[in-house]
UniProtKB/TrEMBL annotation:
InterPro entries: Cyclic-di-GMP_PDE-like, EAL_dom, EAL_sf
A Pfam family this chain is assigned to: EAL
PANTHER family: CYCLIC DI-GMP PHOSPHODIESTERASE PDED-RELATED, CYCLIC DI-GMP PHOSPHODIESTERASE PDEF
Gene source species: Halanaerobium saccharolyticum
Domain (EAL) ranges: 8-264
Protein name: EAL domain-containing protein (Putative c-di-GMP-specific phosphodiesterase class I)
Entry superkingdom: Bacteria
Entry GO MF terms: cyclic-guanylate-specific phosphodiesterase activity
C-alpha cells in the first residue's frame, strides 16, 4: 500500500518534470498499420513510453492513468502530439509524406474547450498537413459526453484530421449511435481478434463489425493481430487494415523509418 502510494508520487513528479523540460523520459514508439489491399504500411500508431529514472520502463496504462488522476494529462497529451507531429514532419522529409500518424487522446483532452484549436496549432507549428494526423479516442469516453465529444470530432474532421474510434466493441457500446458519430475509422478491439480461430463461431463479432462499418462507409482496422490464420480470416472478410505483433511490434523512430525504406 505504502509502496504503491510512493511509486505513484514519484512517477507523478517525474511526469511533471518531463512535461516541463520536454525531455526524452517520455518518448514514442510507432506500430505500423498495414493496408491489406495496397500491401503496404499506410500509418503508424504512436504509443507513449516512459523511461523512469527510478523504476525503468513504466507501462502506458500506468502512467497515463496517473497523468489523468493528477491533472497532468492535458499537458502530457500535448507533448505527445508535438512529438508525433515532429515525427510526421521527419517522415515527410524522408519521402514518406503519405504515411499517417495516429495519436491516442484521452476523454479529458477532447472535452477541453480549446481542444481542436490546440491540435491545429501543434500541427501548424510542425509544418505538417492536418490529413497526416489521426486522433484515436476510445469508445468508452462516449459514455458520459456523447454530444460534446461528437461535436469535437466534427470539428476535427472539418479541419481535415482523421478520427478513429478505438477499442470498438468493448464496454459501453456506441453500436446503436454509430450512424451519428463523426468518425472515419473503427478499430476492432483485440479481444475479438483473439477469438478468431478456424472453424468456430467465435469469429462472428469481428465479421459483423467489419460489415457494419463498411455499410456506414467507415474504414476498419483490426488490432492485436498475432497469427496468420487471423490475418487470412480478416483478408477474407475484407478488413481494410491490420495492426499487431504478426506484422510488427511498436518500433523506435529509426526502426520505423527503416521499415518504410526496406519496403520501398
Ligand atoms: P491501445 O490504444 O489500444 O494500443 C494498442 C496496445 O496494444 C498497445 O499497448 C500495443 O503495444 C498493443 N499491441 C499491439 N499489437 C499487439 C498484439 O498483436 N498483441 C497484443 N497482445 N498487444 C498488441 P501499449 O503500448 O502498452 O499501450 C496500452 C494502452 O495505453 C493503449 O492501448 C492506450 O490506451 C494507452 N496509450 C498508449 N499511448 C498513449 C498515449 O500517447 N496517449 C494516451 N492517452 N493513451 C496511450
Ligand atoms: Ca489506440
Ligand atoms: Ca485499442
Amino acid at each position: 500500500m505504502k509502496e504503491q502510494i510512493k511509486r505513484k508520487d514519484n512517477l507523478e513528479s517525474e511526469l511533471r518534470e518531463s512535461i516541463r523540460l520536454e525531455n526524452d523520459k517520455i518518448y514514442l514508439e510507432y506500430q505500423p498499420i498495414y493496408d491489406l489491399n495496397k500491401n503496404k504500411v499506410v500509418a503508424f500508431e504512436a504509443l507513449a513510453r516512459m523511461q523512469s529514472s527510478q523504476y525503468g520502463r513504466v507501462a502506458p496504462d500506468e502512467f497515463i492513468q496517473i497523468a489523468e488522476e493528477k491533472h497532468l494529462i492535458i499537458s502530457l497529451s500535448r507533448l505527445i502530439l508535438k512529438k508525433a507531429a515532429k515525427f510526421s514532419a521527419d517522415l515527410e522529409k524522408a519521402g514518406f509524406g503519405e504515411v499517417k500518424i495516429s495519436v491516442n487522446m484521452s476523454g479529458l483532452d477532447i472535452i477541453q474547450e480549446d481542444f481542436t484549436n490546440k491540435v491545429i496549432e501543434i500541427i501548424n507549428n510542425a509544418g505538417i498537413k492536418a490529413e497526416n494526423i489521426k486522433i484515436e479516442i476510445t469508445e468508452s469516453v462516449l459514455l458520459n459526453n456523447f454530444e460534446i465529444i461528437n461535436s469535437k470530432l466534427a470539428k476535427l474532421k472539418e479541419a481535415g484530421i482523421t478520427t478513429a474510434l478505438d477499442d470498438f466493441g468493448t464496454g459501453y457500446s456506441s453500436f446503436y449511435r454509430l450512424t451519428e458519430l463523426n468518425i472515419d475509422l473503427i478499430k476492432i478491439d483485440k479481444y475479438f481478434i483473439n477469438k478468431i480461430t478456424k472453424g468456430t463461431e467465435n469469429n462472428i463479432v469481428a465479421a459483423a463489425i467489419i460489415d457494419l462499418s463498411h455499410s456506414l462507409g467507415l474504414t476498419v482496422v483490426a488490432e492485436g493481430v498475432e497469427t496468420e490464420s487471423q490475418r487470412d480470416y480478416l483478408i477474407e472478410k475484407k478488413c481494410d487494415y491490420i495492426q499487431g505483433y504478426l506484422f510488427s511490434r511498436p518500433l523506435p523512430e529509426k526502426e520505423a523509418v527503416s521499415l518504410l525504406k526496406s519496403a520501398d
